[in-house]
Every structure is written in C-alpha cells, then in structure tokens.
Amino acid sequence: MWRPLLVVWSLLSALCACWALATPISASPDEPAHLVRAASVARGEWVGTPSPDGHLVTVPGYIARTQQLTCFAFHYERTADCVTDGPDAAPAPSDPAAPTTAPTTAGLYNPLYYLVVGWPSQIFHDDGGIYAMRVVSGILASLFAALAFAVLWTLPRRALTLLGFALATTPALLFLGGSVNPTAVEATATLSLFAAMLAVVLDPRSDRLAGRAAVVAVSGAFAVNARGLSPLWVLLAIAAPLILAPLPLIRDLLRRRAVWIAAGVVAAGALFAVGWTLGSNSLYNAVENPDSTPQHFPGQGTNPLSGFWITLVCTIEYAHGAIGLFGWLDTPAPPEVFFVWAALIGALLLAAVCLLRGRFLVFAVALLGAYVLLPPIVQAAYITGGGIIWQGRYALPLLVCLCVGLAVALDRTLDIAPATRWLRRLTLISLVTLAAAHFYAFESTLRRYTVGPTGSLKVMLIGSPPWSPPGGVLLWLLLTAALLAAGVWLGDRASRRLPLAAGLPADHAVHSTV
Fold it and tell me: d(Cα 428, Cα 420) in Å, to the nearest integer?
C-alpha cells in the first residue's frame, strides 16, 4: 500500500504544483477571498468583523492586494499583464508584510482547511507566500487522492478501477488543487472516505480492517469540515457502499473496535462541522443578512420547483465545471477535452447499466441518482432567498465517487482477467487520451493568460508574451508533459502487474464474513 500511495501522491502533487505556479495570482474562483481567509485564520482571527463587503480581517499587505488583481476575471480576451499595465493596474504595496485590513466573503467558512494551508503566509512576505499556500493545498488534496488509490489498490480485483481513478482525476480537480480553494480537498477527501468504505465492505479481511478504518476516520473528519455542504457528500460516501453489504456483514463489522473508533472520529468531526455551520450561519448568512455581503445572485424569489428544474436540465452544462472550467468560470477547456471525458464517462455508465446486477446495479443507480438529483435539491432549497448559486465544481465529490464507484462495481461483477490483451490495450489508449486532454487543457489555459486565447504560440513559447509565470512558459509546459507521460507509463506498468482473479466468484467478498 505504501508504494502506490507515495508514487500517486508525488505525481499528483507535482501536477497540482504546475497548475499552482503557472496560474496567475487571483486567477481561480474567489481565490482572493480564500487567500485572505487562510492568512487570517493562520493568525488566529477566525471570523472577523461583518461589513457590507464581507468580514474584515487583518492580513499582510501582499495578501490584501490580491483582491485588486482580478482585472482579467470574466474577461476571456484579457491577458494577465493587466494587473501591472493599463487602467486596472494595481500598484504593489510599499511594505508587502504590513498588517492591512481586508474583507473576505469567506469569513464564515469552516476554518479547518484554511488553518492547514494558511501557515506559509507567516513565513513568506511576498507573492511567494501565495504560491506556497497553493502548493500546500495541492499536496493536501493529492494526499487524500493517493490514499483513495492506495486503498483501492489493495482490492483483489482492480482491472477497471485504475481507469475509474484516472477518469476521476479531471483537469478541474488539478487546477483547483493548485489554488487556494477548499473544493479539491473536499472532493479528494470524500473520495478517500468512499474508497475506504468500499474496501471495508468488499474485502473485509481482519488484517486490513484497522488500516482502512484509519483512512475512514482521517478522511471523513477532514472531508466533513471542508465546506458547508460537505456533510451531505460525506453521508453519501458512507451510505452508498453499505448498499453492497449484506446484513450479516454489517453485524460483523459492528463488533469490531476499529469500526467504532472510526465512526466516533467521523461523528466528532461532523458535530464540529454542523456546529460551525449552524453557529456561523455560513450557508444562509447571505439570505438572512443581504447587506452583509457584496455577493448577490440572480433568481432570488424564484420558487423551489423552478430552482430544481433549472439545475436539473443544466446537469450536463454544470458537468463542464467539474471537468475543465478554469479562471473565474471564464476559461473553458477546449471542446475536445470535454468530449474525451464525456465519451469515457458515458461508456462507463452504459457498461454499468447493461452489465451490473443485484446490489451492484442498485449501488450504481444510487451514485448516478445522487449526482443528477442532489444539486437540484440543494438549489431548490436555496433559490428563493439566495438565487441561483450552483456551480459545476461543487459536484466534484459526487463525480469522483461516481467514476470510481462504477469502475469498482464493474470489476467485481465482470471478473476480468487483467492479462487480457484487449484490457491492456484499452488501459493504454485511455491513459494516453486522458493525458493528452490534460495537457491540452493546461496549454490552452496558460495561453489565455500569456498571449490571449487567439495569441501566437510562437510568442508564447519563445517570444516575449505580455505575461508569463515564474520560470517562463516553456518550463511548465515541458514539466507538465513529462509528468503526464510518467503517469501514463506508471499506469500502463501497473495494469500489467495486476493479479489474476483466480476464479473468485463475483459476489465472494460481499457474502464473506469478517
């Protein structure tokens, strides 16, 4: 378990770091608010003072300045040099480390994520602190993703699970992982919890129960405190795998000390999360106190049924946000990137509907139903007072669990021999295609900020682009390409080392006892 954990953690951390260092400061959704929140929490200021612009806190000047570095937000045609040139330029503070009062619209959010990623702002006193916080956030998100992979790697059958995990690792997940934003950590921590629960149910060997219970405890406690809606995703990640567990297995598990310890840790984390959300009123503060926030959304006063329907019919459109929508939702990945993910997810869904049966079919329908119906339900509950607030990235925890869950279910049902030539070919083709789509998404986003969406590739690579990231454009393109190629090589090598199922009946683990 340790080798796949370290390999996947290192690879994903490096990819997130590429996004972190190649993306302009303040060029991810609401990042200035999250930066101010992280820096203030790291200094012991957990809430701040309410104001019409958000909660006022005290942070270093270079952190407060990030709110002025958004001249390119919502302007797809603008390059990132507008922060230093032109009418919207923001002059650098004379003393970047000077304590400065700044508002944040994230002032009521659960503090755990911000406490973990905010500490570099106390060590660095310039923009290096921002990049360091991004890298720390990427390392944290990658850790939970690697934990999920390592747990799944211990399952007796994992021929298709590798592809499901690769499919769950979308460009948007890496982009958000490389920014100061709790969404990626929420998604990967939920996935880690979900994977550990699946492993406990499908492979309940006593010698592995303690380790998997520890993953459930750590991942669940962190995931439930990531964002206001996180308890809902955590509940799904715990409940859905239990669909695959017959009653005798559940009874056996409930007699295990490790299970009770893990349940206690997750319950304690959930109590803190719910207590913070209710005490701060972070979910409904904008509804009940509209004068205390600068954010106002369209659709206020609309009835809940309309909110449900609007979100339901936009399910595919919102899915773009979980796959490849960058910047302030103003920089979509090229259409080919969406096509790759749509084709592979569609194939996974079709295979699940046609081939799964019994508990596994119910499990797959539950995951798909959650992805399709939970966002409309959330939006229906909020639209009348708060308007349309849903964004595709909010459903990342649902998407990653859907991709991995369907792959695991198909593995258990089909009993595919990993040595099969067609499976190896499918794995290699899929990994190469996904890697190419990742690189295309990264390159097109970097081009948008350096020379503009229609700018010269020659100027971008070897010329003098209006804006370039630290180290230059070519460095991050080559490093990203090398990392993606390494991922393909490692994935193909791993698929060739998969153990044979040795004739194990498809429902063996589900009906075995602990």
Answer: 13
Per-residue pLDDT, 502: 37
φ, ψ for residue 389 (rounded to 5)?
-115, -5
Q: Are 28 and 327 a contacting pair, CB within 8 Å?
A: yes
Per-residue pLDDT tens over the stretch 69-125: 999 999 999 999 888 877 777 777 878 889 999 999 998 999 999 999 999 999 999
| Measured CA angle at 113 (ends 238, 33), to 5 deg | 125
Rounded CA gap, 116 and 113, in Å? 5
Higher pLDDT, 495 or 99: 99
10 Å CB burial of residue 335 (0-12, 13-18, 19+) is exposed
What's the one-letter identity of residue 324?
G
CB within 8 A of 396, min separation 6: which ones? 170, 172, 173, 176, 183, 184, 186, 187, 322
At residue 499, does pLDDT exceed 60? Answer: no
Kindly tell me the sign of the dihedral angle through the C-alpha atoms of 36, 39, 43, 44.
positive
Tokens representing residue 447 in the block:
């081009």
Question: Could you give phi then psi for residue 326, rounded to 5 degrees?
Answer: -110, -175
pTM over 0.70: yes
Query: Residue type at 363?
Result: F
- Check: CB of residue 431 under 8 Å from CB of residue 489: no
Q: What is the DSSP string of 244-300?
A: T--HHHHHHHTT-HHHHHHHHHHHHHHHHHHHHHHHHTTTTHHHH-GGG-S---TTT
Tokens 């929508």 sit on residue = 325
**pLDDT-based confidence at residue 442 (cuts at 50, 70, 90):** very high
Is residue 330 classed exposed, middle or buried when 0-12, 13-18 and 19+ CB atoms within 10 A define those classes? middle
User: Model confidence over 309-330: pLDDT tens digits?
Assistant: 999 999 999 999 999 999 999 9
How far from 117 is each of 9, 12, 34, 105, CA to CA, in Å?
Answer: 17, 17, 10, 18
CA-based nearest residue to 109, from 159, 18, 188, 38: 38
Contact 442, 408 (CB under 8 A): no
- Asked if residue 19 lies in contact with residue 61, where contact means CB atoms within 8 angstroms, the answer is no
